[in-house]
Amino acid sequence: MRHRRKQIQKAQDGVPAFPKNYRYDIATGLALFILDGLRQFRKANIHSYPQAFERHIEDWPKTVDKMIWSFDQIAHDYPDDPYNVFFNAKWKEAEAKGIELVKFGKDRSIHFHEMLDTQKPSKEEILAYQKRVQQGLNLFAKYFRDLWD
Questions:
Q1: What pLDDT, in 10s, does the model give residues 14-67?
Q2: CA–CA distance, 41 with 21 (Å, rounded to integer)
Q3: Do 39 and 61 touch, CB atoms closer than 8 A?
Q4: How do residues 76-96 score in pLDDT, each as one tens digit?
Q5: Beta-carbon neighbour count of residue 9 at 10 Å?
Q6: pLDDT at 111
Q7: Element (H, E) at 62
Q8: Which among 14, 26, 36, 61 has the fewest CB atoms less than 10 Å away?
């Protein structure tokens, strides 16, 4: 197996192959890889910073933290998404009460328990979350070439 892996890397000029289990969800695979790199970069004693941060160098690590948060959300299937938080809480509540939240009909229809119709997160909450995730991605794109030390 090791020999085959070396052959593949050699065929790709030393670049390791992208894991097959992420080929249908490239965003998650890339987010995991980038997240690890950003975390290592953040833990290091960072000496470099973008020119835009010359007057306020202390904001550079905070900016990297925003990038890390966004990639962490993507890599772990958006755990802080308001709707995910709502649904997971309802799921646990339903399990404790022995209620099935989702039932499948014989005609392949899906039926949701009325428990899911109450207290859903507002569109504003969901949009604010999505905006925060996008902000970290935009910062990553903007400062991509400045992530070195």
A1: 666 677 777 788 999 899 999 999 999 999 877 888 999 989 989 999 999 999
A2: 26
A3: no
A4: 999 999 999 998 888 888 888
A5: 13
A6: 73
A7: helix 59-75
A8: 14
CA dist., res. 53 & res. 37, Å (int): 21
What length is written for the chain? 149
∠ CA 37-72-149 to the nearest 5 degrees? 25
Q: Which residues pair with 103 in a beta bridge?
A: 111
Q: Which residues of 24-55 are buried (b: 16+ CB within 10 A; e: fewer)?
A: eeeeebebbebbeebeebeeeeeeebeeebee
Report the C-alpha gap between 39 and 69 in whole angstroms. Answer: 10
State the Cα–Cα distance between residues 6 and 66, nearest whole angstrom. Answer: 36
Amino acid 66 reads K
